Amino acid sequence: MDVKDLVRDEVTIRFAGDSGDGMQLTGSLFTNTTALEGNDLRTLPEFPAEIRAPAGTVPGVSSFQLNFGSIEIMTPGDACDVLVVMNSAALKANLSMLKPGGVIIANTSGFDKRNLNLAKYGEGKNPLDDGSLSKYTLLEVDVSKLTKESLSDSGLGYKDVERAKNMFVLGLLYWMYNRPLESTIKFLEKKFGKKPEIAAANIKVLKDGYHFGETAEIFSEKYTVKKAVIGPGEYRSITGNKATVLGLVAATRQSNLPLFFGSYPITPASDILHELSRLKNYGVYTFQAEDEIAAVSSAIGASFGGSLGITSSSGPGIALKGEAIGLAVMLELPLVVLNIQRAGPSTGMPTKTEQSDLLQAMYGRNGESPMVIVAPATPADCFDAAFEACRISLEHMVPVFFLSDGYLANGSEPWKFPKAKDLKKVNVKFEPPRFGESNGDQFLPYLRDERLVRSWAIPGTEGIEHRLGGLEKEENSGNVSYNPENHQKMTNLRQAKVDKIADFIPLQSVDSGNEKGDVLVLGWGSTYGSIRTAARELREEGIDISHAHIKYLNPFPKNLGELIENFNHILVPEMNSGQLVKMIRDKYFVDAVGINKVKGRPFFVDELKRQIKDALASNS
Amino acid sequence: MSLETLIDLHTKNGNDEPVKYTGKDFSSDQDVRWCPGCGDYTILKQVQNTMPDIGVDKKDIVFISGIGCAARFPYYMDTFGMHSIHGRAPAIATGLKVSRPELSVWIITGDGDSLSIGANHFVQLLRRNVNVNLLLFNNQIYGLTKGQYSPTAPEGSVSKSTPYGSIDHPFNPLALSLGADGTFIARAMDRDPRHLQQMLLRTNQHKGTSMLEIYQNCIVFNDGAFELFTDKKSRPREAIYLEDGKPLIFGKNKDKGIRLDGLQPKVVSLTDGTYSKDDLWIHDEKDGTKAHLLSRFFDQHNPADEFRMPRPFGVLYAVDRPCYDEGVNSQVEEVLERKGVGDLDELLRGPETWVVE
Predict the structure, then answer these.
(1) With contacts defined as CB-CB under 8 Å, which chain A residues touch B59?
(2) Is the CB of B332 less than 8 angstroms away from the CB of A291?
(3) Percent of chain A having pLDDT more than 90?
(4) Among residues A265, A545, B256, B280, which is most buried (max CB within 10 A)?
């Protein structure tokens, strides 16, 4: 049989299997190889909250979607072109994600009676042979059996053989998309360095999967996706959480401060703790605290001592930290709070994404306690946003929220990483010591400079011993004060200090489209890729539409109001029921319209385009 | 190999000569605002008087408190200080001490602060053995909120929130601390300033979390809660002062002792000729089992019981165990030694890259 080699601009593959089938690893390895091949790409891992949900059942399905291409790729793709399913449950859970006419690669041994029962397909029913998949191209491969045969001489036990079957699938996909095996082979050799027999077995299965594609004669097509035209430079692949870690470390290295990270494990933020705890030789101190409150409190203690105190969590944990964050507002010390948002309320859906904590970040503390808020737009942008969160916190002595989400945290993209020498400087100066009685005035801990910023006076500095606390401070002296005029003044000052930061952040620019026109789509956070792609496609359809994405959510960039005035319609898509839109309407008295989704999944481009059109139709 | 940070550079140019202080040097310019006659005054005074003797430069001392009457304490000390939020002082102190191990860090807390809202942080601090000093002002009442029963209030306590008497079983702070594997556990009282000062010095000397419970009289809401132990008349019978290596003797004329019958402590008379002080339990601060027994001398007072146990004061337990803050820092040093100071460009670059022409 002749195999046709077709060229594709863009391909979306979805790997799905049982949690124990290694689909996340398979997806990540395919991603790395694809990145090294020079494609643009985005990924979306989806896994169950249960560590090991009952094997073979629908709740136990884990999947990994990858969109890559020779064109600009900004989302993991709405629906996939190829769906790899390791068992019946995986098919059941993911079939709706496959495009009509798409390809299903099914591991037939995952469709035996037992698996079909576990997936609840109904007595005697098997989707592989009942014609229900007729609108797709179904390719049946007995991956389990072929893996067993591949390793029949290896002497490995059942478990090790069973674990290698994802490599067969990976090899097969590499053949289908003309990808080289080297990067994966190198990875396997390193991962199983101490167990060379396991490494060899996995590599053999990988190669056999590849050769199976060539020789099995069930595949009539293979595909080439050419290198993407992206800016020249050196790239690496990065997830949001990893980029966040690098941003934090870079900012503390630029300011030459120790990084103190107090955290408590929570999905989907824990990776940040894992990654940072490995970077001790970068001046990073990590503390796994007894709870969320101790985590943030320890960070405040470290900041008092002159380190940059950082804490991380997700919604429920942030709620617990609220009181202590308020203390940091009062103390006017640096503190960076990372919220890797997930679907709420309460425990919600821990492994599913949402951006519904914006108003919590904005207002979720007692009293009037304004905070700076910064949000990344893409996985790689987590680096810049985290760096900026630290810079602002240190230079302005103010706690800062960093609002990422589960989609950014685990998603990945190619990143043209910066050089250390090109990073911004972060300017930190501690209050100098005062020697002897005669030397000048008494130290005033709440004296402010022209930016309304007080000085950072750390223990160990002679002559400036002073007391801080959560009680209202007298202006300048910082002594406890219940004076009514003073409280008014200090409340105003704390707000004015945050507002003034607008002078020290970049102006808002239009990401794509005209500077002035009919429709402006305003977004923030992880909706960036979907909005950018939808706006591009709508412009191609002739709609006058622009896209601006807000990274600095409090304070807003100084020119945001002006920019908004340049458009007739303001649309605000968010993965919540309308939070940024409230802030925009409140601040600029503009009839901004929300486009909202809370399904634990990012916007699909098609869905967003449709909703934008609907909003425009009902708004004109 | 080490990383010289901005903090190192900043604190380097300090004054290295030891400074001679008096107690007055530790008094801040703020008016002390506790109720007249509050036990906190004497504790403040003893702490201020002890500070010159601990051999630490004022600039390197930090007092951190939570919420409650006692929590105002840092405002009155002319050192660095933080009056933080309810129950969280141990967590804040942990962050500070881990990042600045050279500082002398003191936690000021109360029975509500440490044994109710902050009980979790309290036990975690003890198990980690962070090298800080914790002064637990126990007055068996919520003073700042004006008179509700506290987690150390005895069963039956009548307070604003328990008009018919408390049905809550109280914490035994020393037993709790031992249970959390605390390495230094001691008790003192506001009305015996000399002993309190000795205990403060011991608290400071110990490396690890030093937990000093101080019986403190709340003159407004719970006056006389510890009178049995603090009153000069009843004290000799009801309190026993522990001294390392010395037999357990108490009583008005040192006429009573405690001996161990197996694991059973017994009060015995030293005057009826049956036992002499050679038969008594010899206090050993390093003996955990005995410390547990001592912490259990905690029964409600029953004057009818001739053989009732006195309440122990002094150091019940003091042992060495590695400190968390030191562990964190030596691990960082070890990694720095092994890997060298991290190169930011190498980190940004990651394990695998590709070049687009």
Answers:
(1) 433, 459-463, 465
(2) no
(3) 90
(4) A545
